[in-house]
Amino acid sequence: MRSFRTLATYGFLGVMAFVSVFPFAWMIIGATNTSADIIKGRSWPGSALAENLSTLVTTNNVPEILYNSFKVAIIGTALTLLVASMAGYGFEVFKSRFKDRVFGGLLLLMSIPFAALMVPLFVLTGKIGLINTHIGVILPSVAALSLLFIMFYFRQATIAFPSELRDAARVDGLKEWQIFAFIYMPVMKSTYAAATIIVFMAQWNSYLWPLIVLQTNDKKTITLAISSLGTQQLPDYGALMVATILATLPTLLIFFVLQRQFVQGMLGAVK
Amino acid sequence: MKSMKSNGWAFIMPAMVMIGLFMIYPILSSLWMSLQTGRGMNLSFGGFDNLLRLTEDPVFLQALLNTGTFLVVQVPIMIVLALLMATLLNNPDLKFRGLLRTAIFLPCVTSLVAYAILFKSMFALDGVVNQTLIGLYLIDQPIPWLSDPFWAKVLVIIGITWRWTGYNMIFYLAALQNIDRSIYEAARVDGVPPRAVFFRLTIPMLKPVILFTCVMSTIGTLQLFDEVVNLTEGGPGDATLTLSMYIYNLTFKFMPSFGYAATVSYVIVVLVAILSFIQFYVARDRK
């Protein structure tokens, strides 16, 4: 009975792990096969890697696409972190009953789905003339994607920020913004690291809002490029596999290098 | 003292401005828009006309039904799978624990668009999945994953489950690790069967986390967009069309109908509110 249970446990978890990892292997093997072979289910490496690469590079301006993706994701992440950590700090350190009410109200907004915002956001972005600009992608997605979540995260983390540090800095004559920039930020760097990973992931993988705002090819991000290649009448899966590797590699690298902070960041909300 | 207070607001202000401009203003303007009818920018006040249109719009009803199906079928499957795997992985005697956990968590790093494309190629008619299933003698005809309304829904559910189960599992694992092991030890000494330990001990203690993941998954599923657009394009027909995709189509694909699209988007807001309330109500502490 006991050995059967052990066997069932390993069997079940083994199958689950295999199913979880298989698409990654499929993506890498697929990059070396022709499109026709891929949809015929060929699951061993082929010799079409160079061909797939050149198809992708000739049909798409890959450096530009990657530049756009990194630009939107990095600026969006930096802005989210700055604005959210300032607010989380402000709400916790300068606590008042009124501020707590405001904070409670903001938390309610967290459950508003982005789908409910996209139509008026599109109209608004059009009115301020930001359609087909990266700023038009960044500003609304910073506000609507993860700002509230990260603000909440920072407020929770700020509880552990020692008030003696602040008092000492005040005695030394530091201004409030200096305390934030030179004391709080370095002390909280592991919180910043965890938040960076979560926000960068969300920004890098974001699809719906860039799809709405960006209209010309020279502005497109990698998710948009993959989507337009993939929804063609006859998609070239070989080139697509190379593109999905490019889209997955940054987040995969972050995951393997910073696994602990990665998981810590994800769990931030329920602690 | 006064300057300290104003300083506090200075830290909060940038966030307030951004949220006000890009969340509060849109949600209010969406409410106003939903009362207007007409195409493009030529809107006129229509009162509740859009609400009436909802009840007579077969595409909307189909999208609502599809989204509801995904929610009702997928979320329970995923939560149960995640709970089961977390419980098994929490056993300290398990070998390859870290490796298995990392493998099961890995799908979370992919972008929704990228994995949708991968799945589309894997679930092609002569693709690797059908070949494997035939090879294992589980089926004798290839399954038309992408061209049959039923199987296309199944495919979307498989996709979302693949992407999000490991994510939910991590929350349960973290919660399980906070539970004192001696409770389990005591249950074992008293000879409580594993099934009873799971239902009487683990589930009640994980209730807050389960509630949290259920609410998050509900909100996520109601907004389902990236996967269906890239995996099935809402098809075949409208078999996998979701509410979010319909809002997008109404606004950006057909002649733009902002007022009506805003009305459909409020359906999502109301559904999120109702379903979250129900979940909190069901999970409340009965005294």
UniProtKB/TrEMBL annotation, chain A:
GO terms for cellular component: plasma membrane. It is a multi-pass membrane protein. The chain crosses the membrane at residues 7-29, 72-91, 103-123, 135-154, 179-204, 237-258. It comes from Donghicola eburneus. This is Lactose transport system permease protein LacG. Keywords: Cell membrane, Membrane, Transmembrane, Transmembrane helix, Transport. Belongs to the binding-protein-dependent transport system permease family. It is found in: Cell membrane.
From TrEMBL, chain B:
Pfam families: BPD_transp_1 (PF00528). Residues 64-279 form the ABC transmembrane type-1 domain. Signal peptide: none annotated. Keywords: Cell membrane, Membrane, Transmembrane, Transmembrane helix, Transport. It comes from the Bacteria. GO terms for cellular component: plasma membrane. InterPro entries: ABC_transporter_permease (IPR051393), MetI-like (IPR000515), MetI-like_sf (IPR035906). It is found in: Cell membrane. The chain crosses the membrane at residues 12-35, 59-86, 98-118, 150-176, 197-219, 258-282. One of its GO terms (biological process) is transmembrane transport. It is a multi-pass membrane protein. PROSITE patterns: ABC_TM1. Belongs to the binding-protein-dependent transport system permease family. This is Lactose transport system permease protein LacF. It comes from Donghicola eburneus. The gene is lacF.
